[in-house]
């Protein structure tokens, strides 16, 4: 049971629950987890040559960058106080990778260092 009785029942009822031995600590979770983006940031963008881009994304890096420039007005997002927005390049790469492979949203998200819902949003 994940209910925090002290918040839902009030302090008086929470004291009763403690005396009866029916309370328990609730584990708090963060809404975002730190994920690695090394594969995209360091390997794909900096190390891959055109043949690797062609093999994996079905286009050369130059073509990919032109596509990103064309899509930028529609896909550009602003940073917020809570997190930095994904770059247009990363959003396009996520969508292309998902559409080009049979990988699940979770697998693609792990590869790019984003959540599975972000993968779904990038594809849409």
Question: How would you sum up this structure, described in words?
Answer:
- The chain has 124 residues and is mainly alpha-helical.
- It folds into 2 domains: 1-30, no CATH class; 38-123, no CATH class.
- Helices cover 59% and strands 0% of the residues.
- The chain contains 8 helices and no strands.
- Helix 6 (88-100) packs antiparallel against helix 7.
- The model has no long low-confidence stretch (mean pLDDT 81).
Low-pLDDT stretches are: none
Summarize the helix and strand pattern as letters.
HHHHHHHH
Structural class: mainly alpha
Residue share in β-strands: under 5%
Radius of gyration: 22 Å
Cα distance, first to last residue? 35 Å
What is the helix content? 55-70%
- Determine the number of helices (DSSP H or I, runs of at least 4 residues): 8
Mind describing the biggest β-sheet?
none
Helix and strand layout, with pairings?
Layout (H helix, E strand, L loop, with lengths): L4 H4 L2 H10 L17 H7 L5 H8 L3 H15 L12 H13 L4 H8 L3 H8 L1
Annotation keywords:
single chain, 124 residues, mainly alpha, 2 domains, 59% helix
Summarize the structure.
With 124 residues, the chain is mainly α. 59% of the residues lie in helices and 0% in strands.
């Amino acid at each position: 049971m994940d209910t925090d009785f002290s918040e839902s029942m009030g302090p008086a009822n929470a004291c009763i629950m403690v005396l009866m031995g029916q309370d328990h600590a609730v584990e708090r979770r963060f809404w975002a987890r730190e994920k690695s983006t090394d594969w995209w940031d360091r390997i794909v963008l900096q190390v891959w040559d055109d043949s690797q881009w062609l093999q994996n994304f079905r286009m050369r890096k130059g073509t990919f960058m032109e596509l990103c420039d064309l899509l930028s007005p529609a896909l550009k997002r602003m940073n917020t106080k809570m997190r930095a927005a994904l770059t247009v390049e990363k959003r396009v790469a996520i969508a292309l990778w998902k559409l080009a492979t049979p990988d699940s949203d979770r697998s693609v998200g792990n590869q790019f260092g984003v959540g599975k819902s972000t993968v779904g949003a990038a594809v849409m």
